[in-house]
Amino acid sequence: GAVVSQHPSWVICKSGTSVKIECRSLDFQATTMFWYRQFPKQSLMLMATSNEGSKATYEQGVEKDKFLINHASLTLSTLTVTSAHPEDSSFYICSARGGSAQETQYFGPGTRLLVL
Amino acid sequence: DQQVKQNSPSLSVQEGRISILNCDYTNSMFDYFLWYKKYPAEGPTFLISISSIKDKNEDGRFTVFLNKSAKHLSLHIVPSQPGDSAVYFCAASGDASGTYKYIFGTGTRLKVLA
């Protein structure tokens, strides 16, 4: 299957700082990338959908000014958690999909964020 | 409103036997369904998918069955192996907006006993 990487794999930061997470599709061009968040023992919750070269579409209840998403190229999307607070601590996972809307999403390994 | 439900949070099966994981959905617009396997602190790994035009799809030890009238799908793993122990998520997509976002179930933790 296709390979998606995320960096960093884990990050600890102080409250009030911003954290950037990168998501890369390594062997295919991802026209669409998705960002999910998972709390312990819960399902994956979609935060936003990003298409290359256009603004991200955020799910209801997700603050777009807090979770900045950039999809500048067909292989890279970034999620920046601005002014992070302890309640933002979570497991963030990206996925990427190729050209067709019905193509399978392939997931990155996730990034564990801990805000102190 | 949970559109995709996995009512069994956990399942234990003996090695070599069949594992059956179930998933129910409510949105009749869903037309593409997938199963993912996930280990702790890792991203989900794609296992198998099925389109609504089919009622069965098989890939090695994994078979997915779709019952559209009941809005139910299941994943069968035969024979089950200890390495199959993980959390399994079903996902559904396909709606009027055409974005094909995935809606995930809450997951079922499978434990295969040696």
Please give a handful of descriptors for the protein shown.
heterodimer, A: 116 residues, mainly beta, 7-stranded mixed β-sheet, 4-stranded antiparallel β-sheet, 52% strand, globular, B: 114 residues, 5-stranded antiparallel β-sheet, 11 strands
Description:
The complex is a heterodimer of chains A (116) and B (114). Chain A has 116 residues and is mostly beta strands. Chain A is built from no helices and 11 strands. In chain A, the strands form 2 sheets. In chain A, strands 2, 4, 5, 6, 9, 10 and 11 form a 7-stranded mixed beta sheet that branches. Chain A has a 4-stranded antiparallel beta sheet with strand order 1-3-8-7, with no helix packed on it. Chain A starts with a strand and ends with a strand. By secondary structure, chain B is an all-beta fold. In chain B, the strands form 2 sheets. In chain B, strands 2, 4, 5, 9, 10 and 11 form a 6-stranded mixed beta sheet that branches. In chain B, strands 1-3-8-7-6 form a 5-stranded antiparallel beta sheet, with no helix packed on it. Chain B is globular and about 45 Å long. Chain B starts with a strand and ends with a strand. The mean pLDDT of chain B is 92. Chain A binds chain B through residues 1, 4, 6, 34, 42-46, 49, 57, 91, 93, 95, 101-102, 104-110, 112, and chain B through 32, 34, 36, 41-46, 49, 51, 89, 93-94, 98-107.
